[in-house]
């Protein structure tokens, strides 16, 4: 239950606040001395503290309240504290707010204002607790993933990539076809490598073929092999990729480009494990785990009569969807750092990388960094070395720039959770961090 601790040496104030809070489904606790208050905090889970500024009749400096606040801050740095102050303590209260106190209210207080302040802080506290729980959960999930699976050196930081990798590793040990979907350059082949590396056949070969890089008349020969004389230029027999992958994994990239005849033969192999080389009547058998990938909309190709529906369902036993880089912006700078190979990015270059939408995904990012390393010489990589197209004029960027008030409001509404606040503002996390630094808004973990 939401809990508020009042620390005040006047029992009447404690009773009044307890009644007010109880009427609004808030659990009240009361301590009459600073020591009793600190002891209660050590023993109970408290969401908000309301602390008096003065515990002595001999002084009106408010220093006792200041010492209590500093003690609470030292032991519970994330706990919101509201200060109750008489007008003589106002200057001290303002200084403590600058030092991190949540707010101050003058005695006698206004019930509605006090309740609004407490409710707002309780909501922020709940959001912060949920965010911390989510951070801990993400860290533990990543540690478990890195401990238990071979991630093939993949670089990632985003929640989206974490979920994709968890699914890929979870299905890796199931002997079923996997379909990886996502745009060109997003890293579908690396996901296929991870699935194979964590499968029961990881000691066997992983054979890859790009169905979009070969002419239609050669794809069948590439997949199933051909006998000498099967077609012009076939001067000797050759085995296909299915035979080469026997016992292991075959990765079929750009499966949407497979021609109809190849689709029919592939369906047969998936159903029976049998096929014939081109120009041969001998039936061969293989046991191959098929992983396919596409950037195409296969259901749309099925509707257009360009892809077999029965083959789609065979390939799509498990689907792993890899989002474009623009939808996992937290991966951009870690990937860029990985590609730097000793080079250094300027702050402006980092900002440009984080703000660019990367239509070419990871492949475009790598090519951009490789080119920039050649152009920057011995110095750091600057914005001009990146060669990124200007997406908007400076004027339009300024018009779209969120104000300090908008940033603070987004952070407040989202409980200080950077990723949520950034999404509500239409920014990446890195872009929001930069704006917080620009506006001198404290960045808290």
Question: Can you give a write-up of this model?
Answer:
The chain folds into 3 domains: 3-128, 3-Layer(aba) Sandwich (Rossmann fold); 154-323, 3-Layer(aba) Sandwich (Rossmann fold); 327-438, Helicase, Ruva Protein, domain 3 (Orthogonal Bundle), CATH 1.10.8. It has 20 helices and 12 strands. It has helices at 11-22, 34-43, 63-75, 90-98, 111-148, 159-172, 188-197, 216-224, 241-244, 260-272, 298-303, 309-315, 332-340, 347-355, 361-375, 383-386, 394-400, 404-413, 418-425, 429-438; strands spanning 3-7, 27-31, 48-52, 81-85, 103-106, 178-181, 206-210, 249-253, 274-275, 284-285, 289-294, 318-321. The strands form 3 sheets. Strands 2-1-3-4-5 form a 5-stranded parallel beta sheet, with helices on both faces. The radius of gyration is 31 Å and the shape is elongated. The protein starts with a strand and ends in a 7-residue tail after the last helix. 32% of the residues are buried. Mean pLDDT is 89; it is low at 391-399.
In a nutshell, what does this entry contain?
With 445 residues, the chain is an alpha/beta fold. The chain has helices at 11-22, 34-43, 63-75, 90-98, 111-148, 159-172, 188-197, 216-224, 241-244, 260-272, 298-303, 309-315, 332-340, 347-355, 361-375, 383-386, 394-400, 404-413, 418-425, 429-438; strands at residues 3-7, 27-31, 48-52, 81-85, 103-106, 178-181, 206-210, 249-253, 274-275, 284-285, 289-294, 318-321.
State the helical fraction. Answer: 40-55%
Structural class by SSE content = alpha/beta
State the shape.
Answer: elongated
Calculate the terminal CA-CA distance, rounded to whole Å: 25 Å
Number of strands: 12
For this structure, what is the CATH homologous superfamily of the largest domain? Answer: P-loop containing nucleotide triphosphate hydrolases
CATH topology of the largest domain: Rossmann fold
Unreliable runs: 391-399
| CATH 2nd-level architecture of the largest domain | 3-Layer(aba) Sandwich
Put simply, the count of helices is 20
Number of domains: 3
How big is the Rg?
31 Å
Q: What multimeric state do the chains show? A: single chain
């Amino acid at each position: 239950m939401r809990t508020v601790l009042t620390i005040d040496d006047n029992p009447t104030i404690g009773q009044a606040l307890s009644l007010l809070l109880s009427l609004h489904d808030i659990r009240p606790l009361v301590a009459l001395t600073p020591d009793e208050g600190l002891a209660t905090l050590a023993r109970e889970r408290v969401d908000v503290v309301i602390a008096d500024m003065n515990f002595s009749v001999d002084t009106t400096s408010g220093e006792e309240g200041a010492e209590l606040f500093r003690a609470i801050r030292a032991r519970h740095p994330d706990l919101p504290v509201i200060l109750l102050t008489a007008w003589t303590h106002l200057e001290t209260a303002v200084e403590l707010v600058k030092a991190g106190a949540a707010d101050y209210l003058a005695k006698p207080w206004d019930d509605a204002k006090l309740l609004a302040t407490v409710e707002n802080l309780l909501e922020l506290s709940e959001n912060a607790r949920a965010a911390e729980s989510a951070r801990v959960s993400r860290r533990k999930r990543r540690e478990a993933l890195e401990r238990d699976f071979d991630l093939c050196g993949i670089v990632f930081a985003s929640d989206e990539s974490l979920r994709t990798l968890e699914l890929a590793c979870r299905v890796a040990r199931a002997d079923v076809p996997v379909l990886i979907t996502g745009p060109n350059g997003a890293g579908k082949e690396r996901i296929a490598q991870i699935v194979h590396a964590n499968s029961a056949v990881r000691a066997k070969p992983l054979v890859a073929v790009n169905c979009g890089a070969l002419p239609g008349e050669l794809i069948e020969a590439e997949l199933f092999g051909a006998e000498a004389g099967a077609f012009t230029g076939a001067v000797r027999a050759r085995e296909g990729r299915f035979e080469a992958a026997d016992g292991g994994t075959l990765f079929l990239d750009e499966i949407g480009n497979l021609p109809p005849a190849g689709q029919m033969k592939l369906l047969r192999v998936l159903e029976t494990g049998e096929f014939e080389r081109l120009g041969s009547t001998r039936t061969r058998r293989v046991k191959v785990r098929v992983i396919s990938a596409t950037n195409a909309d296969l259901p749309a190709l099925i509707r257009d009569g360009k892809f077999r529906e029965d083959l789609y369902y065979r390939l799509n036993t498990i689907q792993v969807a890899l989002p474009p880089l623009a939808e996992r912006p937290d991966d951009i700078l870690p990937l860029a750092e990985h590609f730097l190979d000793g080079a250094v990015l300027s702050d402006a270059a980092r900002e440009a990388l984080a703000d660019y939408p990367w239509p070419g995904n990871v492949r475009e990012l790598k090519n951009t960094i490789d080119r920039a390393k050649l152009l920057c010489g011995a110095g750091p990589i600057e914005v001009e070395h990146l060669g990124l197209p200007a997406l908007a004029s400076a004027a339009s960027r300024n018009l779209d720039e969120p104000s300090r008030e908008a940033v603070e409001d987004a952070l407040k509404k989202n409980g200080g959770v950077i990723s949520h606040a950034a999404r509500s503002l239409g920014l990446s996390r890195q872009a929001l961090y930069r704006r917080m630094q620009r506006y001198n808004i404290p960045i808290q973990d």
